[in-house]
Amino acid sequence: MIILALETSCDETSAAVVRDGVVIASVVSSQIKLHTEYGGVVPELATREHLRNLMPVTRAALTASGLALAEMDAIAVTQGPGLPSALLMGLKAAQALAYAARKPLLGVNHHEAHLYSAWITGTPARAEWGSFAPTVSLVVSGGHTLLVHLRGLLDHRLLGSTCDDAAGECFDKTAKMIGLPYPGGPEMDRLGAEGNPVAYEFPRPLIDAPNDDFSFSGLKTSVRYFLRDHPGVLDQRKSLCDLCASVQAAIVDVLVAKTIRAARRLGAQCVTASGGVACNSALRRQLTAACSKNRLALRLAAPSYCTDNAAMVAILAERKLTQGAAPLPWNAEIKPGWEIA
């Protein structure tokens, strides 16, 4: 089976071609430079860039695959969740391609695509469904923080999510307070590598709560008050790096503790982490150590598949189609608030 997929849920325009579980072409056009001066994603600008880039990116993916649109077995697209206007660009483009080529169209949940991206591995990248085991998965990015129990392939249930800010949102907003450029998460990771993670004490919200939910707005507020009460902390590189390391440690400690606790409670054999924040070096390092200590297998999504991409959409769509998933009707609409089940 050969799938062409499009992804436009936020600020990356991406197209990919997957054949029999192998990624044979993946093209991503990032908008980071466009949004940097605004300190965050501007939906109207993101939508215009998707409109400008969708067809060139799609053509580039088809060219890289060496295949024509007519050779696709199906078209897949991120249907939600995401920025409504951005999602609309991808869905309408996918509908046009599917209609023109007379191919079935499948809508994919963005969270679910991230969830299963941890099984994309190797060179060339391929889906390793044969290694599937009962799993607790952490899906963490700027827009969502989820814990999911995977009882089997395509058999999952949501354990918990964020009550307010997502972990990636907390990274970016605290980084903005500190004066770091957008996106702040990677910059905080870089500076934090030089700092002392116990230099300053910040709260670990809900870390001991008897549930699988997250909350990061209180941590963000704590950083704001800390900066108010310590006006000189940003003047020296050492204290700046210590601050970044300490804030990062507070976020990562919560993510790791709640993930491992859920895995042990449910008797999972494996833990996965995916989504943009799964690129964070401290998170990857602490999850690796915690899983080793608790004798859990660990699958970390490759950095290229942590951020938004169409390859993960195509991989999941192919699997769903082989399992008998129904194509979308021609009049299907976007689902901006489509939560994972």
Task: Label this structure with key terms.
341 residues, 2 domains, 5-stranded mixed β-sheet, 12 strands, Nucleotidyltransferase, domain 5, alpha/beta
What class would the helix/strand composition place it in?
alpha/beta
Task: Note poorly predicted spans.
Answer: none
Strands of the widest sheet, in order across it, are 3-2-1-4-5
Helix content: 40-55%
The total beta strand count reads: 12
N→C terminal distance: 27 Å
What count of structural domains?
A: 2
Main pleated sheet: 5 strands, mixed
SSE order:
EEEHHEHEHEEEEEHHHHEHEHH
Our count of helices gives 11
| Name of the level-1 CATH class of the largest domain | Alpha Beta
Task: Work out the strand percent.
Answer: 15-25%
Shape descriptor:
globular
User: What is the CATH homology-level superfamily of the largest domain?
Assistant: ATPase, nucleotide binding domain
Task: Using the 3D structure, state the CATH architecture of the largest domain.
Answer: 2-Layer Sandwich
Average residue-wise pLDDT:
94
Radius of gyration: 20 Å
At CATH level 3, the topology of the largest domain is Nucleotidyltransferase, domain 5
Give an overview in words:
The protein has two domains: 2-125 and 305-322, ATPase, nucleotide binding domain (Nucleotidyltransferase, domain 5), CATH 3.30.420; 133-301, Nucleotidyltransferase, domain 5 (2-Layer Sandwich), CATH 3.30.420.40. Helices cover 43% and strands 20% of the residues. It has helices at 32-36, 43-65, 84-101, 110-116, 167-178, 184-192, 217-229, 237-266, 281-293, 303-306, 310-322, and strands at 2-7, 12-19, 22-30, 74-80, 105-109, 120-121, 126-127, 135-140, 145-152, 155-161, 270-274, 297-300. The strands form three sheets. A five-stranded mixed β-sheet has the order 3-2-1-4-5, with helices on both faces. A five-stranded mixed β-sheet has the order 10-9-8-11-12, with helices on both faces. Helix 4 packs across helix 11.
